[in-house]
């Protein structure tokens, strides 16, 4: 996928009455003039374009999966870490990713790159010339523009998670291309990590301000399908934690903790069958025929279990008293009757086993862990323990408050992130941002599984797809180190 060809892949009719995702975009010319100025004649056109940006979060390579593919920002970071282990059912489909053996021509790396920049280009189309309506519909413009900026900032942040060589706020290492305009001939260069953060945070903070001044609620009733001001704050809290800006991470997490309660033990399982939106800040809804966020882990209809929870993951739980254990995991026999443990967190709605559930992109439980880690890094030991204990008390019936400090406190926060966020796409990035190694200690893993990824290994950062390098001469000399 070439960035300079992304915009030819946006499926928009001249009237914009239909807006859907393309399945084959590399060599498709748009039906409209490349200048694009004549497309949006009414503010409703911008609303259609925004809907299209949200729809693309469901594409294969982002939160969606299907067939032989799995979700790049959903399950894959756990597959690439020590949380989930590859099984024979996967038929080695994801062995390159699981073993960190990707190369510049890796198709799945290219698919993820395409998915992210496809969302970015749709957000840019939504933003283009929207100010023409600021005088007549200022608060409506704020709502559309704020969401589009949030989407653009989030997608670039996710690209930085895989393709950034580090995460420090002032780091001079290789970051990502940042695309802010609609131009099919554009050849964006690769920014530094610091420059990437500047643009990501600019988009997100502007989005926060705009979404604080809108004409109507972004999400009606209990709906959580759109990024409102709280959704932006959740993205900012996560981003600031990655960047090592702990005071800012603490501040944003605190706002969300005040606004969203933790679920009771009886309600908590309902989150994962879509029977409750408790704790959910923003989610991506999936309907029949739109793929699913988790078929790469457990394929219910075919009874395939591509990746299972590792024994080291399961050992972290109080398997009797922690509501997460019975909610997240189950014993299901294979087709041949062999007993096995599966991650059932995303199996389906109600009693269905079809992997069709909404993707909970941001939950308030993560904010407790963000704030606990930020406070620990800031030397606020008592407050960090209070956050950790509050989350555990909501999940573990017999929890007794504990007080830790220093490395022991940070280690327990990291373990609690596994317990709470298993399968939600965090562990690989958690280890990368804290410069830890991956050390797979499950003795029952496949013989083909690589066990250790050292902190200095190139496998922590994905290569820029070779197609991008070939088409974009601004990227000359900017390939990820080691590829």
Compose a concise summary of this entry:
This protein has 483 residues and is mainly α. Helix content is 39%, strand content 7%. It is built from 16 helices and 12 strands.
Structure report:
The protein has 16 helices and twelve strands. By secondary structure, the chain is mostly helical. Strands 1-2 form a two-stranded antiparallel sheet. A two-stranded antiparallel sheet has the order 3-7. The protein has a two-stranded antiparallel sheet with strand order 4-10. β5 (298-299) and β6 (304-305) form a beta hairpin. Mean pLDDT is 91; it is low at 4-35.
Give the overall average pLDDT.
91
Please report the distance between the alpha carbons of the first and last residues. Answer: 18 Å
Q: What percent of residues adopt helix (DSSP H or I)?
A: 25-40%
Number of strands: 12
Q: Shape from CA axes?
A: globular
Low-confidence stretches: 4-35
Number of helices: 16
Query: What structural category arises from helix and sheet content?
Result: mainly alpha
Radius of gyration: 22 Å
Strand order of the largest sheet: 1-2
Give a quick account of the main beta sheet: strands, pairing sense, barrel closure.
2 strands, antiparallel
Q: What is the string of helix and strand elements? A: EEHHEHHHHHHHEEEEHHEEEHHHHEEH
Quaternary structure annotation: single chain
What proportion strand? 5-15%
């Amino acid at each position: 996928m070439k960035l300079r060809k992304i915009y030819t892949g946006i499926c928009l009719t001249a009237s914009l009455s239909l807006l859907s995702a393309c399945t084959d975009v590399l060599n498709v010319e748009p039906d409209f003039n490349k200048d694009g100025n004549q497309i949006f004649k009414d503010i409703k056109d911008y609303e259609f374009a925004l809907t299209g940006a949200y729809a693309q979060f469901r594409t294969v390579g982002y939160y969606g999966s299907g067939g032989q593919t799995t979700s790049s920002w959903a399950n894959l970071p756990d597959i690439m870490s020590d949380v989930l282990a590859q099984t024979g059912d996967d038929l080695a489909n994801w062995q390159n990713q699981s073993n960190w053996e990707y190369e510049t021509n890796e198709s799945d790396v290219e698919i993820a790159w395409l998915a992210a920049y496809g969302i970015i280009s749709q957000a840019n189309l939504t933003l283009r010339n929207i100010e023409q309506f600021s005088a007549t519909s200022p608060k409506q413009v704020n709502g559309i523009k704020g969401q589009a900026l949030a989407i653009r900032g989030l997608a670039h942040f996710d690209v930085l998670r895989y393709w950034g060589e580090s995460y420090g706020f002032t780091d001079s290492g290789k970051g990502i291309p940042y695309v802010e305009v609609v131009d099919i001939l554009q050849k964006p260069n690769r920014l530094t990590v610091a420059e990437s953060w500047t643009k990501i945070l600019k988009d997100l903070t502007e989005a926060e301000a705009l979404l604080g001044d809108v004409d109507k609620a972004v999400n009606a009733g209990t709906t959580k399908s759109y990024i409102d001001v709280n959704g932006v704050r959740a993205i900012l809290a996560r981003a600031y934690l990655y960047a090592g800006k702990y005071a800012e991470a603490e501040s944003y997490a605190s706002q969300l903790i005040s606004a969203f309660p933790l679920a009771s033990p009886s309600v908590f399982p309902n989150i994962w069958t879509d029977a409750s939106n408790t704790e959910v800040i923003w989610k991506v809804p999936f309907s029949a025929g739109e793929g699913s966020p988790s078929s790469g882990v457990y394929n219910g209809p075919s009874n395939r279990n591509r990746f299972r929870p590792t024994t080291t993951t399961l050992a972290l739980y109080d398997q009797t008293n922690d509501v997460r254990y019975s909610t997240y995991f189950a014993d299901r026999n294979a087709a041949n009757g062999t007993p096995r443990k599966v991650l059932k967190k995303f199996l389906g709605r109600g009693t269905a086993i079809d992997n069709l559930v909404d993707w909970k992109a941001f939950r308030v439980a993560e904010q407790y862990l963000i704030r606990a880690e930020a406070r620990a890094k800031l030397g606020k030991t008592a407050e960090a323990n209070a956050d950790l204990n509050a989350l555990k008390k909501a999940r573990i019936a017999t929890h007794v408050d504990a007080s830790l400090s220093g490395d022991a406190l940070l280690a327990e926060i990291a373990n609690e992130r596994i317990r709470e966020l298993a399968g939600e796409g965090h562990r690989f990035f958690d280890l990368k941002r804290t410069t830890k190694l991956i050390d797979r200690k499950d003795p029952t893993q496949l013989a083909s599984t690589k066990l250790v990824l050292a902190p200095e290994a190139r496998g922590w950062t994905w290569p820029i797809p070779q197609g991008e390098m070939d088409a974009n001469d601004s990227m000359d000399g900017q390939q990820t180190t080691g590829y």
